[in-house]
Each structure stands twice: as C-alpha cells, then as structure tokens.
Backbone:
C-alpha cells in the first residue's frame, strides 16, 4: 500500500473514531494520516476539526487553512474553519468561511445552519432569519430550526409569525418543551389563557422538574384569575429552587391578591437579598408593606425606586403615584420614617 493509500485509510479510520467519540485514538490516526501525506486535505480538515473541539483553536485554523489551500472548493474545511473562527470570537471571518462553504456546495445545510446560529448569537435578527429560512428550504423537517425561527420572530416582535414557527416545531417534534413554553406565552399575550394552561400543563405533566414551564404555567393561571393555581405552581418552583427570585416576587403578588399580606413581605425581602437593588422587587415590597399597614417601610421602598429608576420610566411613575397616596393618607409623615 502506498503512503497516499495508507494516509487515506488512516483518515477514514480517524473520522470514524471521531464520530464514535474516541478522541485520543482518532487523533493518533489523523496525525499519522497527515504525516504520511501532508497533502491530504481531508485528513488536515478532520484533524483541524478535532483540535478545535478540544479548544486548540489557533492550531485548528492553521490546519484548516492548509486544507483549503490544497482543495479550495472543499466545503467541509471551509465550514470547520468557520467553527474555529467562531470559537476565537472572529465572527466576520467565520461568516466569510460559512459563506465560502455554501458557495462551494449549495446543498451543504450545516454551513447554512451555522451561519444562521452565528447571526442569532450576535442578535442580527434579519440576517439570522434569512439564513434559517435558507437552511429550512434544504432541511424542512428540522424542528429545532423552526423553533429558532420562532425565537427570532419574538425578538422582532412578530408574534403571529413566532406562533406559527413554534407550532411547526411542535408538529415535527410534539415533545419540544421550549416550543410549547414559548407558544403558551404568546397565547397568554393574545388573551388565550385557557389554551396556554393546556399547553403548559402538558409540559409540566411530562417534566415535573421543568421550572420554566411551571413559571409560565403560573403566569397563564394568573391570566385566568386562578390565584390559587398560580400560587401552587410558584410554591412548587420555590420548593425546588429557593433562589428563583422572580418566582418569589410573583408569588408575593399572588399572596397579596389572596389577602395573605403577612406572607408576601418575607418572600419579597428574601428575593431582594438575592437581587439587591432590583427596582421592580423593591416596588412590590413597598406595596406589600403598605398592604401590611407599614406605611413608613412602604415609603422607604418607593423612594428607593424613584432614586433607582430613570426620569420618565413607567415604574418610577407608578412609585411616585403610590408614594403620593401614602403621604396623602398620612402614613409617611411619622417622625421615625427613614429617608434612605
């Protein structure tokens, strides 16, 4: 067997080992393939991909550049170079590499997907949407890509399009929890809380530990004025994760609605310990103090919100209005009110 043939054989074995996750053995085979034939572009590309996956990004770039110099239309090498540039934070070069891969092989879906994900990570929503749509023309059955399109549409505030994309993801993959959660959240915003409760309830039934699904289910129950049901979901979250300050804040609001004011105050105090200076939490704590009859503490919280929030913000205006009501009622005029 010639050195060329032996190099090809070792590259094939190395690629198979790489797919199996047997990295050390794959490296041995690929390094030997390159030693036997330094002009083996496929072995150079595979070894570059392996090194990039192991965090040796600069070395990977050098090997992949060598592979492309030997075989300029090798789409896989261009794509792998794009991955290495992405990991190095050289996003413009990564885009160039992905586009070169697409130009070399117009049916190479992976490069289109990588380009879309790069735009997505950079929050370049229009470019991400175009790239995802290009990819889906080649791979229309990819549920995760449809989900990603929905996320892009959410960022573009195009709720109907987002709902359609999440719906398509669910048709392709009915157990896609994140698609159900996002579609449920959209239904709440549309005023279709009953449908949201059904969708989100199915996620929680299948995955009881999925706290994000429970959180959105609680929000949907709130939209139905089901305070007891919302409280049960939020209490379940906090029993599993005591640091979930958003759940604690919302549970405190539910307790206020249920007239359980004494329970709302410690929840919000605890949440503020985990997120000190959080304006919305501070505002809610002020309202909880007011409900509990402690106007002095309420005024202190509301003054903090006014100090934290910029002029003209909605929350600041709400805090100023609530503070004015407290002062008008005489709660905040006692001599001992701290002004912090």
Residues:
């Amino acid at each position: 067997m010639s050195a060329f043939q032996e190099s090809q054989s070792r590259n094939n074995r190395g690629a198979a080992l790489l797919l199996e996750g047997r990295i050390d053995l794959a490296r041995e085979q690929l390094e030997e393939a390159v030693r036997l034939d330094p002009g083996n572009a496929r072995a150079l590309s595979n070894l570059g991909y392996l090194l990039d996956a192991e965090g040796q990004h600069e070395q990977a770039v050098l090997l992949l550049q060598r592979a492309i110099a030997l075989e300029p239309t090798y789409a896989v090498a261009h794509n792998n170079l794009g991955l290495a540039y992405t990991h190095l934070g050289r996003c413009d070069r990564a885009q160039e590499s992905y586009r070169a891969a697409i130009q070399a092989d117009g049916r190479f879906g992976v490069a289109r997907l990588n380009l879309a994900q790069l735009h997505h990570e950079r929050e370049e929503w229009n470019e991400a949407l175009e790239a995802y749509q290009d990819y889906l023309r080649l791979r229309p059955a990819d549920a995760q890509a449809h989900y990603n399109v929905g996320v892009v549409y959410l960022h573009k505030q195009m709720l109907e399009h987002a709902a359609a994309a999440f719906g398509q993801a669910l048709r392709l993959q009915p157990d896609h929890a994140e698609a159900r959660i996002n579609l449920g959240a959209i239904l709440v915003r549309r005023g279709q809380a009953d449908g949201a409760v059904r969708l989100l309830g199915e996620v929680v039934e299948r995955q009881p530990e999925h706290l994000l699904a429970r959180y959105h289910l609680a929000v949907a129950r709130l939209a139905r004025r089901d305070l007891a049901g919302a409280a049960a979901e939020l209490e379940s979250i906090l029993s599993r994760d005591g640091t979930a300050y958003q759940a604690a804040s919302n549970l405190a609001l539910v307790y206020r609605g249920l007239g359980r004011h004494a329970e709302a105050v410690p929840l919000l105090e605890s949440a503020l310990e985990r997120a000190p200076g959080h304006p919305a939490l501070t505002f809610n704590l002020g309202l909880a103090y007011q409900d509990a009859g402690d106007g002095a503490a309420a005024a202190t919280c509301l003054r903090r919100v006014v100090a934290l929030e910029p002029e003209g913000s909605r929350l600041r205006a709400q805090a100023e209005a609530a503070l004015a009501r407290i002062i008008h009622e005489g709660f905040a005029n006692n001599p001992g009110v701290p002004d912090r």
Q: What stands out?
A: The two ends are 84 Å apart (CA to CA). The longest helix spans residues 3-20. The domain at 1-105 is CATH 1.25.40.10 (Serine Threonine Protein Phosphatase 5, Tetratricopeptide repeat). Residues 332-340 have pLDDT under 50 and may be disordered.
